[in-house]
Model the fold of this input.
Amino acid sequence: VNAEIITVGEEILTGLVVNTNAAFLGESLVHAGLDVRWVTSVGDREEDIEGAFRTALGRARVVVVTGGLGPTHDDVTKKAASAVFHSPAVLRKEVLDRIEAFFKRRGKPMPPSNESQAWLPDKAEVLENPVGTAPGLLFSEEGHLFFLLPGVPAEAERLVRDAVLPRLAGLTGGLTCRSKRLKTIRIAESELSDRLQGFHTRFPDVRLAFLPQREGVVLRLSLYGPDAAFCGARLADGAAFIYKHAGAWIYAEDDDTIESVVAKLLISRQRTVSTAESCTGGLVAHKLTNVPGSSDYFRMGIVAYSNASKVRLLGVPEEILQRAGAVSPETAAAMAEGARRAAGTDIGISTTGIAGPSGGTPEKPVGLVHVAFADRDRTVTEKHIFFQDRLWNKERFAGVALDLLRRSLLSKNPNSS
Amino acid sequence: VNAEIITVGEEILTGLVVNTNAAFLGESLVHAGLDVRWVTSVGDREEDIEGAFRTALGRARVVVVTGGLGPTHDDVTKKAASAVFHSPAVLRKEVLDRIEAFFKRRGKPMPPSNESQAWLPDKAEVLENPVGTAPGLLFSEEGHLFFLLPGVPAEAERLVRDAVLPRLAGLTGGLTCRSKRLKTIRIAESELSDRLQGFHTRFPDVRLAFLPQREGVVLRLSLYGPDAAFCGARLADGAAFIYKHAGAWIYAEDDDTIESVVAKLLISRQRTVSTAESCTGGLVAHKLTNVPGSSDYFRMGIVAYSNASKVRLLGVPEEILQRAGAVSPETAAAMAEGARRAAGTDIGISTTGIAGPSGGTPEKPVGLVHVAFADRDRTVTEKHIFFQDRLWNKERFAGVALDLLRRSLLSKNPNSS
Done:
């Protein structure tokens, strides 16, 4: 069953706000087993809204529209629907009563402009909105379901739950869609793709999408099936295949993040950690402390931006800084060991590199980072080279530092991945 | 000049990610004077992409497409463009060389699948991508400009700046849209709205939007006009009105951030700064070091999460921690002074608070933060109370700490704003 989402409002077109309604609607409809193939945004021009409605009716069986149901002059979604469905507006007394009651509850008289919200196309079913003044509408014609919802996210979400999803049940003949995400790091999208080439032959029914994100490429598996158990089993098989061919680069699944995975490992192994950061400037500590309860394992972080602070706070030998330079495996190692010592923690991790845009040389280019892990038994360093952009580099540097911590916690030999 | 934005990729349709590319593109094109009337998202089905391309060419003079230029099987944007423009793919040697060089710089061989990124429709102009492997493409036909850009936001943004905007100049026959953003902090949206009630009567031609963001509410003024000078003057008048009524809460304009504003002040006043963070966990240092060249003013940051580290690294007296507690003005002050002393910088700033979700008490609820500023002459503390969400609280805490630094740098008395 094809579905289209249409959002009405200038603020999406001009980039004033990101389209969170579309994301929420997409997720809800896909989960209900629909195949969402189009998301269209138009502004407040009646002609554009009408055009979008006609196009959608020509290709999608379920259409969900948000926005343009408010009481002001630029709210013309209903007018466009009246034109497209040949359905003139009539005053719905019960809707007007409800709007007046809504204001009365808040101790205010209804502003005159709100009356317009009770003038609704005569063919539409009214979907009651318990959290606002604009009701939703449903046109059912020739097998199409065409929903109009208010644009306020909280109101749209409520109506999706209360009115849209119940009316979709049965439409897909029990078909449901389930998905699973596997998050990778330290591997290029192209290499990952090459490693997973056999996937499509083995799992022709499972969609595999490659989604590049800040820290690395996220793999999303999804399929439609008769029920959640069937889909879950199939996704587990697909995930097992991916773990077999690219498991070394997978650090988390679904809503887990590198920091939440590391947090669980630190807690289960009862280890404490401290950080010594140069190029990431505090981002590693920030990520570690994004997890609620992080004070259980995180004690202290030092952002040693200057060489002097590397020597003074972390005890990095001047000799190493002079011989190998601040951006070197030796300095990274000394920083991790110094953090561990200064904080009295089980583990110290460190970053030193060149985030850019300036400061690079042919031998040490922008994008170069050395990260280190130190505990009682060993010190391990790793080198990575990324790209040009400073903020992205900081994110990627922090990602590989936390991933080194993750692998070190998992294995006796973190370089054996 | 009508414009359409098309984003390609399942992740938008299924709600996995919000469409930030569309927001960025919309803002850029509107700013260039274009009338963005449609934003369309389709998935990875070639037929849907082709359909979207044909529809767009039938109604928009400028079309900007992002996504689907990667090296994997589900990247079919180029194929769809080849079909629509009757332009078969040919191997572009110079593009292949560039991709190979890209990997060589990172010390890796090019994975085989990346070669596909050098097979490009023969009629398209190649738009070089300095920050990734997928080049952009431009088809110019019958007065239409049809751009294909990579979907990775940093790459799309770079290509918009370097390749798209320069080619749009002159296209709009002089009509332009200009906008100005004024960024506020420490004031609620409703209070801001009340203070600015006279705006619409004084400036009926200027749109004023209230955009709640992480650190505070951003005010966006925009208008269309015959030329940049006219628009600029009108926006300057509007901004002056806003400064008059709410200037105390404005910390930056347009693309400036709290950290870029602070960076400029620190450099112009030749001051150095260090940080002592508890609840923000490194975020203040991370923000300060997001600005290129931050080593000119930032020396060292300490994330003192445990009380022991506050005593040991920052010299906070045990007596203060016991009497006033870790979350107190006294501790914040001692932390800022300790950071300044430990780092040998002109200024120290600090944060101590309760980010949540747990750890709150009736006297010290989740959302409470004390921030402090210390220099040679004075130590100033400030108290703020925000909300429940941990990540948002960290952002807001860091924001008010940096805003205290900003006001302190601007005035002899930072509490006189």
The CA atoms of residues 258 and 403 of chain B lie 7 Å apart. Chain B touches chain A through 96 residues (CB under 8 Å). Residues 390-410 of chain B form the longest helix (21 residues).
